[in-house]
Automatic annotation (TrEMBL):
Protein topology in the membrane: Multi-pass membrane protein
Transmembrane regions: 107-129, 149-171, 218-238, 244-264, 324-347, 367-384, 391-412, 424-449, 461-480, 486-506
Domain Major facilitator superfamily (MFS) profile, chain residue ranges per copy: 113-514
InterPro entries named in the record: MFS_dom, MFS_ERD6/Tret1-like, MFS_sugar_transport-like, MFS_trans_sf, MFS_Trehalose_Transporter, Sugar/inositol_transpt, Sugar_transporter_CS
Annotated PROSITE patterns: MFS, SUGAR_TRANSPORT_1
UniProt keyword annotations, A-Z: Membrane, Sugar transport, Transmembrane, Transmembrane helix, Transport
Subcellular location: Membrane
Disordered: annotated segments: 1-21
Record protein name field: Major facilitator superfamily (MFS) profile domain-containing protein
This protein's GO CC annotations: membrane
Length: 534
C-alpha cells in the first residue's frame, strides 16, 4: 500500500471529514494516544484553508493559510460526543450554536431600533397613499385636467428618483442613522412631495438587515413594508374625512424618528467597514445583549470586511462586472417587476378605478383595500423566516396575476355589455391583488436587496435599484390614467402578464436567503468573495 493510501486510510479511520460550505467548523477526533479523555478539538474558518501534516494521530500538525488554528480540550458538550469519530458543528445549526442568533435580553434593543427606523416607513406610506383619496378634491379645487393631475401624481416619484441617486452615497458617508436624519429634515422642510421618499425604501431595510440576527432578519425587515402599508391605509381612511390640504402636512412620524435616532445604535457593519473598531464592537454588543458572547459574529464580520477592503474601491460601473452581475440582475429585476405589475397605479388611483368599474363611490373600495393590506403584511412577517423568501415571492406574484385577471374580466364585461356586469370582480380582483402584493412582492424585494449586496457595493447598488424602482413607479403612475383611457381591461391584462413573468423570474434567478448570514449570502453571489464562503 502506498504512503498516500495509508495516510488516507488513517484519516478515514480517525473520522476526518470536511463540510464544503462550513464557515466555522469544530473537528473532534478521538485518539487513544492523545491525553486520556481529552479529544482533540480543531477550529478553523474554512475547511479548504486547512491543511494537515501528520505522522501519527497524537502528532497532528494543523496549519491555516491566513490565521493560526485553535486547538484545545472539548467543552462538556463535546465530551459527550467523544466516542464518535467526528463532530461537525455548523454555524447556525441546532446544537447550541448561537452565532447570529438573538439572545432574549437583546430583543428589546433590536425592536426599539427597528421601531425608530420604520417611523420613516410609516411616513413614506402616507406619501404614496396620499394621491388616491385626494385626487377628486385636488382636481376640483385646483381646476386640473386629467393630464395635469397625472403630472401632480408623479411628482412624488420624480423627487424620489432624485433622492435615490444620492441616498446610497449619503448612507455610505454619513452612516445609516445619519442618512435617516438627513431624510427626516428633508421631509419636514419639503412636506410629502420631496426627496424624502427616495431615501426611505433603501435606508430602512438596509439598517434593519444589518442590526438583526440572521434568524430574525427576514421578519424584522418586512416590518418596513408593514409600516408602509399602515401609512398608506391611514391615508386612505383619513382621505374620506379630512381635506387633501390637511392630509398633506402629516409630518409627526418624521419628527419622532429624528428624536429616536439619538437613542439607537449605528449599524455595526457600517462601523466595521468605516474603520471604527471600538464603536463596531460596542454597537454589536448593545444589539446582542451585554451578557452575550459576540466574538464569533464579530470575527466573521471583521474577516469579511477586511476582505472587502482588499478589493479595489467600488464605483457604480463596477456593479456590471462579473462579480456582481447576478446580484444586480436579481435586485434590478425584482424592483422593476414590483412596479411594472401596476401596484402604484392601482394605489394612486384606486378611487377612480372603483368608480370606473361601476361603483357609486371609491371610498368603500379604498377602505376595504386598507383593511386587507395590514393582516396580509402581518402574515408575511410571520412566514418570512419560516417559509422563506422565494416561496412567498412566487405565491405573491401569482396572486397579483390572478387579481389583475379578475379586474380585467370586470372591465371587459362592462365594455362588451354582457348580460350581467361583473363589477364585483373589480372589487374582488383589487383585494386579491393588494392582499397578494402585501404578502410578498411589497416587502421581500427590499429585504433581498438589503441582503445580496456586499457592504462595499451597498451604497451604489442601493441607489441603482431604488432608482429603477422609482423609475418604474413613475412610468406606471404617470401612464396609468392614459392606459385606462386606451383600454381598461387591456391595462389589467398587461399587468397580469407582467406578474406572470415575475413568477418565472423568481423561480429561475432569485436565491433563497433564509437562515444565512449576510456574509454567506454575499459571498455566494460574488466570485471574488467565494473563497470566504466555500
Amino acid at each position: 500500500m502506498t504512503k498516500q493510501r495509508k495516510q488516507r486510510t488513517r484519516e478515514e479511520q480517525g473520522g476526518k471529514h470536511l463540510h464544503d460550505r462550513t464557515q466555522h467548523v469544530w473537528l473532534v477526533t478521538h485518539c487513544p494516544t492523545y491525553p486520556p479523555g481529552q479529544p482533540l478539538v480543531i477550529h478553523w474558518s474554512r475547511s479548504e484553508q486547512l491543511s494537515s501534516e501528520q505522522n501519527h494521530a497524537r502528532d497532528r500538525r494543523w496549519t491555516h493559510r491566513e490565521n493560526p488554528c485553535m486547538a484545545g480540550p472539548m467543552e462538556p458538550e463535546g465530551r459527550d460526543a467523544a466516542g464518535k469519530p467526528l463532530l461537525v458543528r455548523v454555524s447556525g445549526s441546532s446544537g447550541g450554536d448561537s452565532h447570529g442568533s438573538a439572545a432574549s435580553s437583546s430583543i428589546a434593543v433590536v425592536v426599539g431600533s427597528t421601531a425608530v427606523a420604520v417611523a420613516g416607513s410609516f411616513e413614506f406610506g402616507l406619501s404614496i397613499g396620499y394621491s388616491s383619496p385626494s385626487q377628486l378634491g385636488i382636481m376640483r379645487d385646483l381646476h386640473l385636467s386629467l393630464a395635469e393631475y397625472s403630472v401632480f401624481g408623479s411628482i412624488l416619484t420624480i423627487g424620489a428618483m432624485l433622492g435615490a441617486i444620492i441616498s446610497g452615497s449619503i448612507a455610505d458617508r454619513a452612516g445609516r442613522r445619519g442618512a435617516m436624519a438627513i431624510s427626516d429634515v428633508i421631509c419636514t422642510l419639503g412636506s410629502l412631495d420631496s426627496l424624502f421618499p427616495g431615501f426611505t425604501p433603501l435606508l430602512v431595510p438596509v439598517y434593519i438587515s444589518e442590526i438583526t440576527p440572521k434568524n430574525l432578519r427576514g421578519g424584522f425587515a418586512t416590518v418596513n413594508q408593514f409600516m408602509i402599508c399602515c401609512g398608506g391605509s391611514l391615508a386612505f381612511v383619513l382621505g374620506t374625512f379630512i381635506t387633501w390640504r390637511t392630509l398633506a402636512i402629516v409630518l409627526a412620524p418624521c419628527l419622532l424618528q429624528l428624536v429616536g435616532l439619538l437613542a439607537i445604535p449605528e449599524s455595526p457593519r457600517w462601523l466595521a467597514r468605516s474603520g471604527y473598531p471600538g464603536a463596531f464592537v460596542a454597537a454589536l454588543q448593545k444589539l446582542r445583549g451585554h451578557g452575550t458572547d459576540i466574538s464569533e459574529e464579530a470575527s466573521e464580520i471583521k474577516v469579511f470586511t477586511e476582505k472587502l477592503h482588499r478589493l479595489p474601491k467600488s464605483k457604480m460601473l463596477d456593479l456590471f462586472q462579473k462579480d456582481y452581475i447576478h446580484a444586480v440582475t436579481v435586485g434590478v429585476g425584482l424592483m422593476a417587476f414590483q412596479q411594472l405589475g401596476g401596484v402604484n397605479g392601482i394605489l394612486f388611483y384606486a378611487s377612480e378605478v372603483f368608480v370606473s368599474a361601476g361603483f357609486s363611490s371609491g371610498n368603500t373600495g379604498t377602505v376595504a383595500m386598507a383593511i386587507v393590506q395590514i393582516p396580509m403584511i402581518g402574515l408575511g412577517v410571520l412566514l418570512m423566516d419560516k417559509a422563506g423568501r422565494r416561496p412567498l415571492l412566487m405565491v405573491s406574484a401569482a396572486g397579483t396575476c390572478l387579481g389583475c385577471l379578475l379586474v380585467a374580466l370586470s372591465f371587459l364585461s362592462k365594455e362588451q355589455h354582457w348580460e350581467r356586469d361583473l363589477n364585483v370582480f373589480a372589487l374582488a380582483g383589487l383585494l386579491v391583488f393588494i392582499g397578494s402584493f402585501s404578502l410578498g412582492m411589497g416587502g421581500i424585494p427590499w429585504v433581498i436587496m438589503s441582503e445580496i449586496f456586499p457592504i462595499n457595493m451597498k451604497g451604489s447598488a442601493g441607489s441603482l435599484v431604488t432608482l429603477i424602482n422609482w423609475l418604474g413607479s413613475w412610468i406606471v403612475s404617470y401612464a396609468f390614467n392614459f392606459l385606462m383611457m386606451w383600454s381598461t381591461y387591456g391595462t389589467f391584462f398587461i399587468f397580469a402578464s407582467i406578474c406572470g413573468i415575475t413568477v418565472v423570474f423568481v423561480e429561475r434567478l432569485v436565491p433563497e436567503t433564509k437562515g444565512r448570514t449576510l456574509e454567506e449570502i454575499q459571498a455566494s453571489m460574488s466570485s471574488s468573495l467565494t473563497p470566504f464562503h466555500k
